[in-house]
Amino acid sequence: MLKKIALLSALRYQSRTMKQKLVVLLLLTFSAWSPLFSAADTPEARRKEAERYLQVSPPKALFEDMAEKMAETVPADQREQFKKVMTTQVDIAALSKAMVDAMVKNFTTDELKALADFYGSPVGKSAMQKFGAYMADIMPVVQAEIIKAAGKMEH
Question: Which own/partner pairs from 93-98 qualify as long-range (CB within 8 Å, at least 24 positions apart)?
């Protein structure tokens, strides 16, 4: 009887460890094959995803929002002129092309897909609506630090 209990216990243990080994084996197999199921990382695929990113996060809207927020840091009598120049004199098509080209050069297809997915989501859209204000807050500090660093180069 004791031998029978020990044998059943051993079989259950083997069965449990065998299941665990099978699960690990399946996970390893799927992870090894996962690159085959991800998007092809070609310049064409990158360009497609970069363009999709610009559709969900249009540079023109971002630039207009940023100009609006940055105008708040300009003297009141110059704000309208500043906004007009920033929104009418910037070549958005050239900016968009440069953005796509830089994205294709620097990001993988999967990274661009993730960016487009995020910024196309409700949370991503909400974040982007705050980006102009963020840039307006940080830009004076960035400019001051650049001027300070340039001043140190002269000495």
Answer: 95/59, 95/63, 96/54, 96/59
